[in-house]
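Risk register update: the risk of archive-format incompatibility is retired. Evidence:
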Amino acid sequence: MEPLRRPLSPCSSRPSSPRSPPCETSVSVGIEAVLDQLKIKAMKMGFEFNIMVVGQSGLGKSTMVNTLFKSKVWKSSLPGLATPTPQTLQLHSVTHVIEEKGVKLKLTVTDTPGFGDQINNDKCLRPLDIEFLQRLCRTVNVVPVIARADSLTIEEREAFRSRIQEDLRNHCIDVYPQKCFDEDINDRILNSKIRERIPFAVVGADREHLVNGRCVLGRKTKWGIVEVENMAHCEFPLLRDLLIRSHLQDLKDITHNVHYENYRVVRLNESHLLPRGPGWVNLAPASTQQLTTPAPLKVRRRVQEDPKDEF
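Archived output:
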């Protein structure tokens, strides 16, 4: 009598092929623990975020950064204290480590003192702004804002926003979030709503005031309290959500995978001081189209019989 044969399961009846659906196991092997590993590693290492604020003196850049992270990240000059206008544009950076619920963020803020202080601003993008943004949007993620929006009426604010949006379109200034980086329909819907509100009309404040029995972050005027986190007063919550709560990792990914790679290609192609030895690589200059659309580099290798001839 033949021994009883155990029927083979569908998963073991034949070797799996790329076209066959994946076989789900009934016993956990610990794949879901990868997320816990990533979380533990991220909690240990922390995160890094670099931000540069650009604008005229007196627009409240320092206050906006402090309000954004609810910390004394940047020290502003004392009110009424006259400070000399910088003759040259020198970048000034400070770095702080901010911790929230065990998550550490290494924040570096870069200021541009004296940028455009000697140019009149007639409530539109100035030629300096246009040229600056055209160059900058190819290197970093640009998020424009309307500073001190409480000095404008709602009608003036919307008219100003429309003029800025028109200038951005006419001069091909692609600010964040860029349409070409929308990965799916959900990203497209979310980012389209954000693009409609850019530039955000914001108000910065680092003091709390008592309003209807509760403490709110705002700025006191003779007409009342301008609440920073009240959407009826300004759009600061939209800016904070974009930079921190919803798009911070996307900002870092685009900076690393797109902007930095473009910058690296440009620097490699412009460099004529590479050390030359056996098998050195000669990079041909990149065209304008290549700089905007990254493509694999085509290199030409030259083998030198005698390296001494190159020095």
